[in-house]
Amino acid sequence: MKEELQAIQEEGLEALRQVKDLKELESLRIDFFGRKGKLTDVMKGMGNLSQDQRPIIGKLANEIRTALTDAFDSTKNALESKQQEQQLMEEAIDVTLPGRKPAYGKAHPVMQTLDRIEDIFNQMGFQAVTGPEIETEHYNFDALNTPSDHPARDLHDTFYLTDGHLLRTHTSPVQIRAMEKQKPPIRIIVPGKAYRVDYDVSHTPMFHQVEGLLVDRHVTFSELKGVLVSFAKQMFGDQTKMRFRPHFFPFTEPSAEADISCTVCQGKGCRSCGHTGWIEILGAGVVDPEVFRAVNYDPEEVTGFAFGMGVERIANLQFRIPDIRTFYENDLRFLGQF
Ligand code: DAH
């Protein structure tokens, strides 16, 4: 029996050396320690031993059992840590891989220009207000002293909707809305979108304007000039010159268009300014008495000036792109440059 036990020990230790994974180990355990296992079998036979043999063999059996159990446990530990290591290797994350850079958004170039224009006028005391982009003929034309036979009302320029509605062709109708809402003094700017049936390198059907309106007692054309020259110098640099050319707008009298000295050639004349040295940037004038009458202001009591400028145009003077339509193609490679 002694030899039998020692043989089992040998066999067990050898089997443990060969075992490859936890599953094999488990079947080995059943083989030796299970209810019908090898060791259990031998132990069962102890009852047949003589009185003096029993303690000796019993002691030996216990020793072998302990030795085998210990060997099992350490094999199990080794296999488990091997398995864990393998799992960790498989699930490993390579922390040395460079991360993905988040794409930062920023303001659209036209909005950057618009913000700058707003800042300059805010600082001169003009408050920004807004109005609807879907307008009536009354606000977009009639109240602005634009009779129905005026070329600006031609179908070619205006997007007409149904029921006398249209997409506003300029931000000027907000002048009327503002004056209806409040009494003078008024000092506002109106940043916003306008729409015209127009599409070429310097026109998009949707574009932005900033309107300006100042109404008070004794307002003169020279104050209009002062405000606009100050704006031009802040926007385009201190060396910028501005000139006013007589013009016609139905809602101002007298009216003017204002040019700035070319930002590319400093007024010497180049391709950008058509070799004139000047670039037109806005329309302006003294508010026509008819406009005041439309909002029940007394033209004998108050005077005012107004102006309107195209934002894409000004953005283009800053960023110099050959085709302003690219502002609205939403190509991030283009927009990301500004
Ligand atoms: N509304 C004009 C346009 O879209 C621009 C303009 C000119 C606005 C003179 C004004 C103004 O307020 O006084 O072409």
Structural commentary:
Helix 5 packs across helix 10 (311-319). The chain is built from eleven helices and nine strands. The chain is α+β, with helices and mostly antiparallel strands. It has a seven-stranded mixed β-sheet with strand order 1-4-5-9-8-7-6, with helices on both faces. The longest helix has 38 residues, at 53-90. It is rod-shaped. The chain has helices at 2-18, 22-33, 38-44, 53-90, 109-123, 137-140, 173-181, 221-236, 289-294, 311-319, 332-335, and strands at residues 127-128, 134-136, 165-167, 186-195, 206-216, 242-249, 252-261, 278-287, 303-310. The site of 3,4-dihydroxyphenylalanine has 12 residues, from strand 8 and strand 9. 3,4-dihydroxyphenylalanine binds next to strand 8 and strand 9.
Descriptive labels:
7-stranded mixed sheet, binds 3,4-dihydroxyphenylalanine, 11 helices, 338 residues, two-stranded antiparallel ribbon, alpha+beta, rod-shaped, 19% strand
